[in-house]
Amino acid sequence: MEILRSFTLAISICLKNKIFKNLFLRYIIPVALPLILTGCYEDFTPKIETKPVLCLNSLITAGAPISVQVTHTWLYSDSDAMENHSVSDAVVGIIVNGEEKGADYLAQEGDHIRITATSPTYGFAEAEVSVPYAVPIKAVRYTPVAIEGETSIGQHNVLTAVYEFKINIEIDIFDPAAIENYYGFTTTTFNNSDISPHLSEGEGEEEGDYAGDGTVYGNTEFYGGTLDYEAEPIFGEHIGVFESMIAGGTYDFSFFTDRQFSGSNYTLHLKYSNAYYGIIVQGWSPEVIDFGYTFTLYSISKSYYNWANYKWQRNYGEIDDLSEVGLGEPTWGYSNVSTGAGVVAARSATTYTLNLKDLINSLIQKD
Question: Containing H/E element for 10?
Answer without folding.
Answer: helix 2-16
